[in-house]
Amino acid sequence: MARSPSSSAQKAREALAARLKEAMRRAGLDGTRVAHAAGWHPSKSSRILTATTLPSVSDIETWCRLCGVPDAVEDLVAQMFAADEMYSVWKRRWRGGMATDQATYGPQFRRHRRIKVYSASVVPGFLQTFAYAQALLSTIARFNGVPDHADDAAAARLEWVQLVHEPGRTFAFLIEESVLHYQVGAPEDMADQLVHLLTAMTWPAVSVGVIPMTAQRPDMWVQETFSLFDDARANVELLTAEINITTPSEVDGYTKAFTELSKLAVYGAQARTLVGRAFSSLE
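The chain above was modelled as a monomer; its predicted structure follows.
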């Protein structure tokens, strides 16, 4: 795996690489000698030491054995998994099926009370209908070359979507107006999704803002889709991977972006007008 685009994820990898390097130096070894003893190509140890490649469990076990620190394996493996979770490639996540992956979100989301989502491309998952989610997940599966189990995945998604109706949580959603016009699924499915969005705007714990295409953006621009959980963790969705960010300075950046984007959005009757306009365009 290439270097992570998230500085939080990359710092976690570099911290792990530093510990492996320290163990190697204390054992009087270098990368070339470790690779030779392990039966690896020399470039492999180089990639591990430069945090370009995240080592596997067996890599760490071999490294610690050669450096004479077998007791460090458990701690280093835990650190490896923590770094790996920060940058999660979709294809690897979906090996067990998209439905299984969707089911993991519920327990994660349930731990948080204030959830904020900005989306520039699709209706946020918490506001999706079954048909919309099914069509979207099917498209994603085909693009990534993974088994298309969109029916089961959409059903699993709708289970955690019910969190918006549980007391004690608040949700703030920001979407670009273009999201209302990107047709996902059949026209009738898109129409149902827009009607559902209008309904969601009436839910007491939910705020939905729509950023008009005509909005002036002197201080903010269109961002990648991201979510904030209690302003303590940011989740960023890329084309091929998901990044989980917990470094306070980086989370603050996304919190600031959400605040600035909120100022560009319209709410209430104005937002409903934009949704209605998109609905009319389907006809």
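The mean pLDDT is 90.
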